[in-house]
Amino acid sequence: MDWIAADWGTTHLQLWEMEADGTVLNTMLSDQGMGVLLPEDYEPTLLGLLRNRLPTDRTTPVIACGMVGARQGWIEAPYAPVPAAPPSAAIAVRPKLRDPRLAVHVLPGMSQASPADVMRGEEVRISGVLAEEPDFDGIVCLPGLHTIWAQISAGEVVSFRTFMTAELVKLLSTQSVLRLSVGQEGWDEAEFQAGLDRGLSTPAALASDAFRLRAEALLDDLPSEAARARLWGLLIGVELAAAKPYWLGQAVRIVGVEDPVKLYSAALAKQGVQATSRDWEAMTLAGLGAARRTLLERA
Amino acid sequence: MDWIAADWGTTHLQLWEMEADGTVLNTMLSDQGMGVLLPEDYEPTLLGLLRNRLPTDRTTPVIACGMVGARQGWIEAPYAPVPAAPPSAAIAVRPKLRDPRLAVHVLPGMSQASPADVMRGEEVRISGVLAEEPDFDGIVCLPGLHTIWAQISAGEVVSFRTFMTAELVKLLSTQSVLRLSVGQEGWDEAEFQAGLDRGLSTPAALASDAFRLRAEALLDDLPSEAARARLWGLLIGVELAAAKPYWLGQAVRIVGVEDPVKLYSAALAKQGVQATSRDWEAMTLAGLGAARRTLLERA
């Protein structure tokens, strides 16, 4: 093992044991996210997962991104303001450790002054896209609980914009009156497409179109998978209406896990934009790997 | 006591002991809403609240509205489709009771075929507005967890439209990442007005403007009461953008409790619409009282 890649978010910690050439030796997933940890818990959490796998004859670097660097995380890694290249290890923050076998480098997130916006973790995936395509000029779209659209030019993040789209779908379908009518599984592609059209053309009607799913379930027995697909379509359609400057006539890379990437790819294709998708894990490792290289160059 | 008015919703039951002339003798509020009751629980719940206050020499009518008449309530009172006058006691549904001292009349809600929509309870408040102003021609706006806009003409509900506005505010401010930045108390009128303008002019940006509250809290120390007021402004602004046919150049009556009525009145006033407000309880009793009169006329 040459180094350790860590994606340490609010709800999860994922670790990859890496060789110098980028080969993944081992991966570990834990539910010990920032949300359940105090600052003094982070080092024991790492050591508990890595146990006796750590080399004892040298210090192994851990390159970490995500909420671990938030004010309420392990140690605050202040946001790098855009425009800027995605943060490298040169501005990572290093918590003090008791165990000499580990050296942890926490990468900062990025911020935008106006309109105010922040990200923590997505900038590493953007760095991964740039590691693959150093001359990329265009848009990186990162769907997750929140979707971030980032404008990339000359190796820098020029501007970005966050949408709470998937979190709204989740809240509406599990916590609101719609939970009685919107399923957590199943799909109806025609309803997704109808929702997309409606959201894009009439975004202001969202709070009314959402309730209509409940009314159609009561009056017309709308199936729960149809309601689910239309709700996703509505919310993504409304997002696309506002994010138009981020995709119209642009080269777009979508970085995420399988299902959301499919939804955004389909939604953009409907608008005539052929986005290229990139795997979330691969871009995370490419981005953390790029930070690992800056560390070596500085050494 | 001549009759009993009952507003039986999902989370609460409110009872009013009424004299024939509309005088309120006594009011009772209970948390025994539809959500926690099985069909066999409703009669004991009523009797438990009324105890030995019921006359024994005659049958006292109870006029009830709300989710008590839903499929999952006491007894289903099928929706009356619009266009139609608000349901009267003539089409109320009567559950069988064991106790001869009570006769319960459950009023139906109203439905709309296209776009699909439903209401249960609000139609009684509309009936109350018509009891006060029989010739009213215009819009009744009923803010609550959901806001309903109803078009009234010739004593009938012609069409209506439901928006999940307050439920979205509640979910975003208590269950989403915004809960860390949006307060449950306090107010900033300038932020409310700014949110209104933004929501009305750029409704598609909602999922992004909402996240901006979190980013401004992190980067600019946006106070939680300012975030709360702007979130309300955004959501009501987006609603007004879609509901424009329901208020532009219309006579509007707003029926609700104090705080939401103030917000909607201020939002409409900003658009040049001077809405008249009506008290929620008074309109409930006027509407249930109108149903009581149809009962007497039929007897």
TrEMBL record, chains A, B:
Q: Which UniProt keywords apply?
A: Kinase, Transferase
Top-level lineage group: Bacteria
Q: What is the lineage of its organism?
A: Bacteria, Pseudomonadati, Pseudomonadota, Alphaproteobacteria, Rhodobacterales
Q: Transmembrane residues, as ranges? A: none
Q: Which InterPro entries match?
A: DGOK (IPR007729), DGOK_C (IPR042257), DGOK_N (IPR042258)
Q: Is the keyword Nucleus in the record?
A: no
**Signal peptide: which range, if any?**
none
- Protein name per the record: 2-dehydro-3-deoxygalactonokinase
Q: GO molecular-function annotation terms?
A: 2-dehydro-3-deoxygalactonokinase activity
An example GO biological process term is: D-galactonate catabolic process
